[in-house]
Structures are given as structure tokens and as C-alpha cells.
Amino acid sequence: MTKSVTMKGKDSQTADGGTVHDSLHSGWMRFPGIPAIVDVPQSFVAFSSLAKQDGSSDIRPFANLPRHLERGACDAFNTALSRRPHSAVHVGLRRHQRRRRRDAGGATMRSDLASCSRRDLLKLLGLPAAAALGVFGTAACDGRRQHYVVDRAGQRAGLRRFEPVDVDASRLIRSTVGLRPYRNSGFRLDSQRLDGKQLIHLYGHGGGGITLSWGTANLAIGLLAENPPPGPVAVIGAGVIGLTTAILLQRAGYDATIYAAAAWPHTTSNASAATFYPSHVIAADRVTPRFTALLESALFRSYHAFQRLTGQRYGVRWMDSYGLQGGGGAAASPDIETQVYMKVVGEHSRVLTRDEHPFAADRVTQDRDLVIEPMIYLHALLEDFRTAGGTVRIRRFDTLRDVAQLTEHAIFNCTGLGARTLVGDTEVRPARGQLCVLPPQPGVDYTLYHGPFYYMVPREDGIVLGGTFELDNERTTSDPATDATILSAHKAVFDAMR
Question: Whole-prediction pTM value?
């Protein structure tokens, strides 16, 4: 099979059936008989050059091919030219080389394209044709080839591919509900004495449980330094806060046992969308400088902990993130969670121009997300805990009297919503969240946020569509009307992509 290498323009016939355009005009040439190297839609011969100190440059055909194919393409191209001594290109090259020999006093010249300087090729082909062939590239097609390549294609001309989510009620594979443990004054982190034992409270993270887990667990264990326990330590609760606390206790040298009414995969943490952001942690009118500093300290520790967990084992990965905003009105001031997040993580978002995205929104920003797959992540944590010698015991605690019966001298209360009854904390309120899950779409490689509180997170177990934040709603079964609202809001956004 043979292919012709073509550039658009005006032509004249040559003796071998080929055609070549007068180089003084913006024209084209055809190279009949040149074998195809790879089966691609276009088989263009591209030329590039490597500038030398004397101002000349070597010419490299087939610069548009991958480096591992380029050498073979060069050899085949020169071989084909040598077998067609009357081809338009070869005739032109021989004329060019005779002129170079005459100028150089009869010195021996190479018979391939590498003997042409960029200036000579421009004279031979004409400026428009040479420019169309890409004369102004980099590297050389001769024996002095470099053994590496600098690939900046994504920086130069990479096009971001957006695959829309196929949103339809008929594709809904499941709808899940989780009750976040929310406190108006923020998460609780303190300790008390209980029948000679140290009881440390760590609960009430709102929508930031997974995000803050490593940080708040680290701070909670710091409370043991004042009065280190003489033996094993107990953790009540097997959600993400309980698991991270138990693992950090093991790393600190303690034997830890987790007591819980339910464990993976039946915890509230398993029902979360799980991106790294401290959502709905504290009421705006309850923010204090002390809590702000505490939130920043916890978020800082968690952020660096999660960066060490990226990869398939823990289901943690970076992903492009896009936010859609409507026009009109001044932008609202960021809440304390956002302010602290930007201070810890940094401000990396940028506003996209209209030709950089397909969304029908007045303002689109691009950022990056740290996405956590809850089912993978929590299972990996549980395995880490067990591998280190930890034990999970299924047990329910109704009152502090039950807790006092434990033999451990230090106990961590990581019960989340259960703290309402266990310690009588009436400030803990359920914040209901409902998620719609569609089948996985491997081509969807970005997260999306729009509207008052809608988000899309692609995961291995499906496309997660949220969301809701319904305070004081304790219903744990899915609401079909909520499903319809979530699906409708997302469908409008993805159907409008152009």
C-alpha cells in the first residue's frame, strides 16, 4: 500500500507522474511511491530543523511521527527517493546539492534531505510550502539524533476532552442516604474524666468528616500526652473518624480496639461523595478565632496525610474540577470553610474563557480536586488497622455507664450522630444527604459543581450526583422526589454542553 504526501496548492506535471508547484507561489507537491509508515488518516511529510551555531539547520522529515517510528520513516523516504531518480523532489534536491558543491569547491555532499539548511529548503520549496511542512521544528534526522524527547504537546495545543454524563432516570442504579453529624459550634474535641478513665470526645464534623479525619484524630491523640494510659486504648465508632484515630494510636505505640454498632461498609462515611473539602462544618454565626485556628490546623494535617495516600490501594486521586456560576449580582463572601481551605491548599482556580469549556454558564472556573473513593478507602483503612493487630468488636453503647465498663483506661468517643444519646449532646443534629448513582463512565474524568449545592463526582462504582443538606431530617430511605430534583438539575447542565 502506498500513500501520497500532499500539501494544498497549484501544480505542474513531472516526468515520473508526480507534480510540483512553482516554489514562488503558495503551492503544493506530491510524492508518489513513498510507502506509508503507519496507518493514520494523514501521512504528511513534516520537516523540522535543529539550529546550528553557523545559522544553518539540519532538516528532519517525518517530524510528526513518534520518535520510535521516525528513523525508519526517514530511511524509507530516502530509499524511495533514491529509487525514483527523476522524481520532482529528487530533481530539486540534486540541483540544490550541485549548487552547494559548486559553492563548497566540490566537497562531497549527502544525498538526502539532511544536507539542506533551512534557508536552502525555503528556496527549494518556497516559503509557504516550507512553512506548511513545519520547517521551524526541532531536532535532526541524521546520525546525531538525541535519545530523548521533550513533549510539551499538552502545553502547546492540547485540547481538553469533556465527556458529558448521560443523565436519565432510567439509568439510576441506586440512591443512597447518609446522615451527617452536624453541630452549629463545629466538631467537638475535648476530654473528661469518667470513673478514673480518660474519655476524649471527637465527633460532629458535619460534611467534613473524611476531609478532616486525619487532622482532628491527630489533635485528639495529642490530648493523651497530659496523662498517657498504662495499657490498651478503646475507640468507639468504626466510621472514618474512628478508623483514623485507631490507626494513629497504633502508630503512636498503643494497642487499640474499635467498638462499634456497625462497621464497613455500613457506616455513614460509606455514603459520602468524598472530595477533599470541609463542607458545612460550623454555622457562620458561631465562628470564633479559636475554632478557625483549630480548623486550619486539622485541615493542614489532613491535606498532607491524603497526599501520601494517593493511588489505587486507597482510592485517592487528583482530578480536574469545574465550577459553574450564573451571572448577575456580586459574588458572596466565602464562608470560613472556604477561607481556611484556600489558605491551606492554595488558590489554584482560574476563570476560563468561553472557548476553553463546553458549559452553558456565564462564569466557569477550573480547579483541582482530591477525590476519595469511600468504599475502597475505608476498606483499606480497616485492613491497615487489622494488619497492625487491631480488633473490631461489634457492640452497642447506650449510656456512659456502658462505656465505663470497658477495661481500657483511655477511650475515644467517635460516635458521630450517636453522641446525641451516648453523652446527651443535644447540639448534634442530623444533616440528611441523598445521592443518585449512575453507571460508571470511564471517560468522565472531572468533577463538577453548580447551582446551590449540586455536584458530580466520577468514581469506580458509579457517577455520583448530589446533593442535599437537610438539617433535622432523619429519614434514611431515599425520597423519589429528591432523586427527580437532583437528576433534573444535572441533566440540564450536561444536556446544554456544546
Answer: 0.70
